[in-house]
Specification:
Blueprint: E1 5-10, E2 17-23, E3 29-33, H1 36-44, H2 48-51, E4 55-60, E5 65-69, E6 74-78, E7 85-89, E8 94-99, E9 108-111, E10 126-131, E11 137-140, H3 142-158, E12 179-180
Parallel strand pairs: 3-10, 6-12
Antiparallel strand pairs: 1-2, 2-5, 3-4, 4-9, 6-7, 7-8, 8-9, 10-11
């Protein structure tokens, strides 16, 4: 199979930048998340308007992410004591990536707003946490997203790429101490 595109990314001020490698629809899942946590994370960074229609993400494995400048500016922010790590560029308060709190599950959500060209991601294939007319939340193509994530993370672990991550040290410690976001009003 042919290699995918390499796409550059950067925070709002450009201090944190890098490359997302081998981008193609088969190597990630293009989704839009409508959950309250994603919306809150964007709101905390002054991007509430962007969150109103959902947060556009490309789910992949961390070994595809190369941070070339400003890694010292990345900080994991948690919305709750046990929540996801939402990696934010502290220099300009740009939300950039989501990971689990440790490297055990090789998963990274890349906020597509930081990419120079999101076209190679392919079409959006799912929407999560969509509020229906009855007020209940549901997922569109949720089982497809879960299946693709399980396949990717298992392949990364079995193929030896599972611990290749710019977010954690070799012993599994985050590269910066996690911060807890202020409580929601």
């Amino acid at each position: 199979m042919a290699a995918g595109a390499d796409i550059t990314f950067a925070c709002r001020c450009g201090a944190v930048s890098g490359t997302l490698h081998d981008v193609r629809p088969a190597e990630g899942t293009h989704v839009v998340c409508h959950c309250q946590s994603c919306a809150r994370a964007m709101t905390l960074s002054g991007l509430a308007d962007e969150a109103s229609s959902g947060v556009d993400l490309w789910q992949t494995t961390p070994d595809r992410i190369e941070i070339t400048t400003g890694i010292d500016q990345l900080t994991p922010v948690r919305l709750s004591p046990k929540g996801l790590f939402r990696w934010t560029a502290q220099c300009c308060d740009t939300p950039m990536f989501n990971t689990f709190p440790g490297p055990g599950i090789p998963f990274a959500g890349v906020l597509t707003r930081i990419l120079s060209d999101p076209a190679p991601l392919g079409p959006i294939i799912a929407h999560g946490f969509v509020t229906g007319p009855n007020g209940k939340q549901r997922h569109q193509n949720g089982s497809r997203v879960i299946w693709r994530m399980l396949k990717r993370t298992a392949a990364a672990k079995l193929g030896g790429k599972g611990r290749q991550t710019p977010f954690f040290t070799a012993d599994g410690t985050p590269i910066a101490p996690p911060q807890l976001a202020p409580k929601a009003d």
